[in-house]
């Protein structure tokens, strides 16, 4: 993630990191399916059983994208990047539990901190864009990823889109999702307040496509959707 006037990494403290694995699977219905399909889409794009170096941006928390990709493709290796130390520590614990640390380079920081001549076969950016305020920050992280990918390399982008308050029915359904999982009315209101604070999703699928186009990526193919959430595969043009 990029540095902002309010650094989004600051939101992901120890308390949030400790609850992330459970909370994220409630907030995103289909969390594991999205990560599994992301691995399948990258394998379909690169070709199965081919060695690859994959850049995983915003890997903190569950490291689920790495776990899913590693299970599908034993010859892939990963560079996990996240600016939140508590979240990256949590991811490291999951990687250790799945015996994947030997296949993963851990980097506490931002994409632009990586060597400018780094060359990756693919990348993922899952659950990040909506935490970055304004298009400039979103463009910067996409451009930083673009600069470190080989020509034609695929990129998975996934996250919330739509201005939350522009979709009252989806917000209400999201609230019911928490109630379905046992949250009290007070807890649901607290969750609603949290999602409406400190997040700036792209306001449409067209906005996502425009951000990718401006960063040098081609037309994106959507392969997953869940309320506000979408997931797309695109490729670096040059």
TrEMBL record:
Residues 60-154 form the Methyltransferase type domain. One of its GO terms (biological process) is methylation. Its EC number is 2.1.-.-. This is Class I SAM-dependent methyltransferase. PANTHER family: BLR7975 PROTEIN, METHYLTRANSFERASE. SUPFAM superfamilies: S-adenosyl-L-methionine-dependent methyltransferases (SSF53335). It comes from Pseudomonas iranensis. Keywords: Methyltransferase, Transferase. The keyword Methyltransferase applies.
């Amino acid at each position: 993630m990029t540095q902002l006037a309010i650094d989004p990494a600051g939101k992901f403290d120890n308390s949030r990191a400790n609850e992330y694995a459970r909370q994220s699977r409630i907030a995103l219905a289909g969390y594991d399916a999205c990560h599994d399909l992301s691995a399948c889409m990258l394998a379909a794009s690169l070709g199965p059983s081919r060695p690859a170096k994959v850049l995983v941006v915003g890997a903190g928390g569950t490291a689920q994208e790495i776990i899913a990709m590693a299970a599908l493709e034993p010859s892939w290796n990963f560079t996990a990047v996240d600016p939140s130390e508590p979240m990256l520590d949590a991811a490291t614990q999951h990687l250790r539990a799945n015996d994947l640390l030997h296949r993963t380079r851990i980097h506490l920081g931002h994409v632009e901190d990586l060597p400018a001549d780094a060359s990756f076969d693919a990348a993922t950016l899952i659950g990040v864009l909506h935490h970055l305020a304004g298009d400039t920050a979103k463009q910067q992280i996409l451009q930083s990823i673009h600069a470190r990918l080989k020509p034609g390399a695929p990129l998975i982008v996934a996250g919330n889109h739509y201005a939350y308050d522009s979709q009252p029915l989806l917000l209400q359904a999201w609230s019911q999702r928490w109630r379905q999982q046992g949250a009290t009315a007070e807890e649901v209101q607290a969750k609603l307040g949290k999602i409406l604070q400190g997040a700036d999703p792209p306001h449409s699928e067209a906005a996502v496509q425009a951000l990718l186009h401006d960063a040098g990526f081609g037309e994106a193919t959507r392969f997953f959707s869940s309320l506000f959430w979408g997931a797309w595969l695109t490729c670096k043009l040059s």
